[in-house]
């Protein structure tokens, strides 16, 4: 969480918004499309085998194209992979903040 927060701050996201995202991103005032995509990313993280047509219908209803759904899936899966590699190797957050 700290590494991702530091990255958002580097992108120019305000500290207040980052704090809201860390606390409860669902109430952080994000656009519906973004909230639905984040819900989907949580689903991918928790159990990708349970994702089905209802999830894709929610994404499309929120305005996501098939390309955006693919991108969200790949990004969520990639970050899950990288987080587990970093956790397994004991990568410290300070290394990420300083680069």
Based on helices, strands and strand pairing, what is the structural class? Answer: mainly alpha
Radius of gyration, taken over Cα atoms and rounded to an integer in Å = 15 Å
What's the total number of strands? 0
CATH superfamily membership of the largest domain: AhpD-like
Q: What's the overall geometry?
A: globular
Summed up, the domain count is 2
Provide the low-confidence segments as ranges.
95-99
> What is the annotated CATH architecture of the largest domain?
Up-down Bundle
How much helix is in the residues? Answer: over 70%
List the helices and strands and how they pair.
Blueprint lengths: L1 H9 L4 H10 L7 H16 L5 H9 L4 H24 L3 H6 L1
Helix pairs in contact: 3-5
């Amino acid at each position: 969480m700290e590494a991702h927060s530091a990255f958002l701050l580097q992108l120019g996201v305000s500290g207040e918004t980052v704090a809201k995202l860390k606390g409860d991103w669902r109430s952080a005032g994000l656009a519906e499309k973004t909230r639905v995509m984040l819900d989907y990313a949580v689903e991918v993280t928790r159990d990708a085998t349970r994702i089905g047509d209802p999830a894709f219908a929610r994404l499309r209803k929120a305005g996501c194209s098939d390309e955006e759904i693919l991108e969200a899936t790949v990004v969520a899966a990639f970050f899950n992979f990288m987080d587990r590699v970093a956790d397994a190797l004991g990568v410290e957050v300070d290394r990420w903040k300083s680069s």
